[in-house]
Amino acid sequence: MGLETSCDETSVAIVEDGSTILCNVIASQIDLHAKTGGVVPEVASREHVEQINAVIKEALDEADCGFSDLQAIAVANRPGLMGALMVGVSAAKALSYALNLPLIGVHHIEAHIYANFLIDPTVQFPLVCLVASGGHTQIFLMRGHGDYELLGRTLDDAAGEAFDKSARLLNLGYPGGITIDRLAQSGNRDAIKFPRARLGPESLDFSFSGLKTSVLNATSSGLDSHPIEDWCASLQEAIVEVLVQKTMRAAANYNVRTVLAAGGVAANSRLQSEMRRACESRGLHFAVPSKILCTDNAAMIACAGYHHILAGHEDGLDLDVIATEALA
Ligand code: KG4
Ligand code: ZN
């Protein structure tokens, strides 16, 4: 069983053998946080407390399992909102103690990457993985399971933040990534010129704060100059283009044959199609989880936990929550 409560989804999943998803229940708090235009940590924690027991029960029912069928408990314990993480970790500890099962604390970003192994456990190493979510934008080199080398990262905003903050300026509500994705499908990608921070010919790092300022400036005199679809398509292209370009540069520099994408922004249609096209033209294998497995969910936590068990890792009941911790 995997539990995920690091931000604004209360999720519990049961996964067999690291790849067969028996259930992946996700109780989203989006409606609650849309009212405030973003996640209020205290509100998120309280909502997790309200939801967690019911979500555990729903997961068992959906998977047609009893507690006695479970073999291990994996939980996201880092990084994330402290109060939110604590709800999942407390529930996981209670289950582990009462059922006498191994407890495994999982790094949330590692779990995003492992969503790919849920779909295809035979993914070949070495590989390069782009992780782009609401709080993170990084490129990792993996030479094997649990082996991460950080190749590039954002110097300021995450890609998801660039989507969400721009969406707010475009009056599209919270969270905006998915709305921008939808509207961009019928927009003109070349309508508005937004900056791309390339940071030098060899850089694998990202910067999205200039884009945010540029959207702020462009929207300051109103949105009437272009259809909303064109705003979305142009903005999305500025984000997607650098994500794809740097990931391809990393794949070439490290001579890998496999490229993965993960995290909420990896659900973006344009990012997926551009990554696929770029990989195909270079003869590289590209994989990305289904959209529901790109955004926060507990199946990815269970999968990462499964691989930790295979590697002989286990945590004690003193497992702590950690607000910030780099994966590598
Ligand atoms: O991984 P995730 O669910 O949560 C974090 O760990 O942050 O990522 C959420 C982020 C948000 O910024 C959201 O706007 C973005 O992923 N996102 C998208 C799409 N779906 C979710 N961004 C662009 N296009 C999408 N289709
Ligand atoms: Zn996430």
Q: Into which percentage range does the β-strand content fall?
A: 15-25%
Major beta sheet, strand line-up: 3-2-1-4-5
Q: What can be said about the biggest beta sheet?
A: 5 strands, mixed
Q: Based on helices, strands and strand pairing, what is the structural class? A: alpha/beta
What's the structural domain tally? 2
- Ions, cofactors, ligands: which are bound? 5'-O-[(R)-(carboxyoxy)(hydroxy)phosphoryl]adenosine, zinc ion
Total strand count, please?
10
- Overall mean pLDDT stands at 97
Shape: globular
DSSP helix fraction:
40-55%
CATH topology name of the largest domain: Nucleotidyltransferase, domain 5
Poorly predicted parts: none
CATH architecture of the largest domain: 2-Layer Sandwich
**Rg, Cα atoms, Å:** 20 Å
Distance between the termini: 26 Å
Instruction: Return the string of H and E elements.
Output: EEEHHEHEHEEEHHHHEHEHH
CATH superfamily of the largest domain: ATPase, nucleotide binding domain
Our count of helices gives 11
What is the class of the largest domain in the CATH system?
Answer: Alpha Beta
